[in-house]
């Protein structure tokens, strides 16, 4: 895909148990996702050309799981649509989440996402693992929640910044009023309420 719009309207299925040899390279344009799509079995997926810009538009209620994606230097992605984008440890140099949900796996936000991810007002940041951070831009204007992958009796967030811990705890309590959250040992502990 180099330009224009490519639409994926259904799941991508591999009917073989052999090692995947598929490649999906986004080199510009728009990738439109109209159904749940998991690209984890692709050998190469992502943006391989330097300084490439692309848009990923995901329909509401749908998820693009791009957890094995890699990105060349200078890659810029704009995420639109009310659906969900899941990335792994690799992210583009610039990711603008204009709408919908962005899922973050267990990570150190400062090392992986800070300076690269911009979350627009009204977007949702979902934590699917314990995230460590000293700042999250625009936290006051987004919804912060946690995914089903995190079980009770686990830390969901850690920070050396006491004010950030309080702000994140308040956001989580607002989004998940039936769950319990407490600040403990420099982190936010999640428990059954």
Describe this structure in words.
With 193 residues, the chain is mostly beta strands. The chain contains two helices and 20 strands. It has helices at 109-112, 162-175; strands at residues 5-8, 23-25, 30-33, 37-38, 44-47, 53-58, 63-66, 70-71, 76-80, 84-87, 94-97, 101-104, 107-108, 117-119, 124-127, 131-132, 143-146, 154-158, 179-184, 187-192. The strands form four sheets. It has a six-stranded parallel beta sheet with strand order 1-3-6-9-11-14, with no helix packed on it. Strands 4-7-10-12-15-17 form a six-stranded parallel beta sheet. A five-stranded mixed beta sheet has the order 13-16-18-20-19. Strand 19 and strand 20 form a beta hairpin. It starts with a strand and ends with a strand. The model has no long low-confidence stretch (mean pLDDT 89).
